[in-house]
Each structure stands twice: as structure tokens, then as C-alpha cells.
Amino acid sequence: MEIIAFGVQRDEQAILERAFAKGFGGEHEVRMLRLFLNADTVATAAGYEVVLTSVNAELDADVLRTLAAGGTRLIAQRSTGYNNIDLDAARASGIAVARVSYYSPYSVAEFAWSLALAVNRRIPRAAARSRDFNFRLDGLMGRDFHGRTAGVLGTGKIGAVFAKIAHGFGMRLLGTDVAENPECLELGMTYVDRETLFREADLVSLHTPLLDATHHVIDADALALMKEDAILVNSSRGGLIDTQALIETLRTGKLDGVGLDVYEEEAGVFFHDKSLEVMTDDVLARLMTFRNVIVTSHQAYFTQDAVGQIMSATVDNVRDHLAGRTSENFLVTPGR
């Protein structure tokens, strides 16, 4: 049987091929496309029982009905997040949905720290200057993280790793979540409400899933509570931040820096080369004008270790589907 995979990046191809070869020994082949699955590309999936998708797929009710009509019975998403999938519509269409519930938390936590450090120490600006042989230090002064306060919004696996790194820097730890993580408590983290975290943290890092309760958790009110020189990092989901409110805050000169690996309207932009096109997203274009903002292309997960685990788990999900089994990775099971 041939399986189709959408949104496969060039550096992922060999890893996915190896995972399929190891998992199926050539019994099933995978057709890999750079295209992302959405209303414009869904016709390409006709006739494929198993469809592999990425986090930037747009799987609304119409797309899912088209997939079901074309014979798709499993969507195996190569990510932990699944807010791009209408699960009720999938269930109604008779399509099972699986995700990757776990992969290396170090990949995302380390990248979040890369953003925090790059923003704090003005590394992109310094690197750009040095290429022009400008080695002046004007405007490059940062701060020690040691002795300052890190606020971790969401203290699951990734948030806990971020906190461990912060602990290594010698930072005071504040956290907020629906449940306290014993690993974080052992580090000396104090759990507080969101408002307290926003007021007291020098560095705020977001590691919570995108849910109705967390959509725009960083809004104008939250930004107003933050310190004038706070640093904000988001390596989780773009919808956690009200981008327009963030822009208005940055325009006042508030916030020392912002590091974003995600953006709430990133679908159709991130993972694409837009360098020869006019940027029609005015909000993103405005955001990119601030010198103290770093935007990267949803790459926090993108390490050999994490991608290898993602592909291996995806193969396991396909194998379970073909054998009539389910696992904790399945969000929608056949007949439910």
C-alpha cells in the first residue's frame, strides 16, 4: 500500500524513509510531498487510506469530508498539537486521527532558550554588524539571567526542561499551570497565578497547548502587567499571543525583547519561501520591523533527535491502524 505524506521538509525526507523501511521493511511505501494539506491540495489525497499531515495542515470539516469521500481512513499528524484538526468533523466522517503525543522536550526547550539568549544579548544585530566589519558595542548591552526571575507558563515536559535550564542559570522560578509538576517543585519553583507571574517575571516563556482557555492568554491586559524590560518567548503555539496587542505594546517601547518561533496566522507563510513575494500579512510585516523582535519559522522541534522520534511514532500509529489497534496517540478512533 502507498501512503501519502504532506508537508515533508527536505531535511525530514531521509528520516521518514528510514522510519518506514525499519517499520515496514518495504511492505508499504510513502509518497512525500512538500505541499501542505488544505482545501486547495486535498484532491491530491484521493485514493489514499492513510494520510500523514503536519501542524500547518488545514483540516476543517470540508477538507475532512473530501478526504473521507476519497477513501481516507486515518490521518496521522506528525506533531503533538492538533488544534488544526476539526476532531468532531473527523469523527462524523469516519476518519481516525492520531498524533505524536511525545517527542524530545529538549528540542523545544533548548530552542526557547536560544531565542531568549539571542534577544537578550542582541546576537542577530551583532552578527549582522560584524559581517560589515562594524565591531562597535553600541546598543548591544544585555543583562545577566543569573539572579533574575523566569516565569514558565505551562510546566509539562517541555516547560519542566525549560525550568531546569533556568535553574542552571541560577534564576528564581515562577510557574503557572492547572497542576503542579513535582520536578519543577524540586527545582524550587513557586506556583502562582498568571497575573503574579506576569508582574514579577523578567523572562516569560510559553509552554502551554492552544486551547479555548489559553487562546490569547497574552493579551493587552497581560502585557500591561509585565515589566517594562521583560523578555517574552513563545515556542508553543502562535494563538497564545494576541499579536496586534503585542505590536501596540512594542510601539510604546515596552518589553526588552520578544522571541517568537510561532505566529497565530503562520499557515500559508511559515515553511514557505516568501522572499520574492510582497508580504500581504500586514501584522506580520509590522512585527518584523521591531529590532528587538526575533521571528523564526516554527523550527523549535527541528532536531535530528526529535524528528526521528516523531517519524518513528508516526509509523507506529500507521501500524496500529492497519492492525486494528489504537493507542494513547489516537485522538479519534474508528467508530467513535
UniProtKB/TrEMBL annotation:
Keywords in UniProt for this one?
NAD, Oxidoreductase
Q: Which Pfam families does the UniProt record give?
A: 2-Hacid_dh, 2-Hacid_dh_C
TM stretches of this protein: none
Query: Family per UniProt?
Result: Belongs to the D-isomer specific 2-hydroxyacid dehydrogenase family.
Note the Gene3D superfamilies from the entry. NAD(P)-binding Rossmann-like Domain
Q: PROSITE patterns in the record, alphabetically? A: D_2_HYDROXYACID_DH_1, D_2_HYDROXYACID_DH_3
Name a GO molecular-function annotation. Answer: D-lactate dehydrogenase (NAD+) activity
Which protein are we looking at? 2-hydroxyacid dehydrogenase
- InterPro entries for this protein: D-isomer_2_OHA_DH_cat_dom, D-isomer_DH_CS, D-isomer_DH_CS1, D-isomer_DH_NAD-bd, D-LDH-like, NAD(P)-bd_dom_sf
Instruction: Please list the residue ranges annotated as the D-isomer specific 2-hydroxyacid dehydrogenase catalytic domain.
Output: 9-329
Q: Where is the D-isomer specific 2-hydroxyacid dehydrogenase NAD-binding domain?
A: 114-300
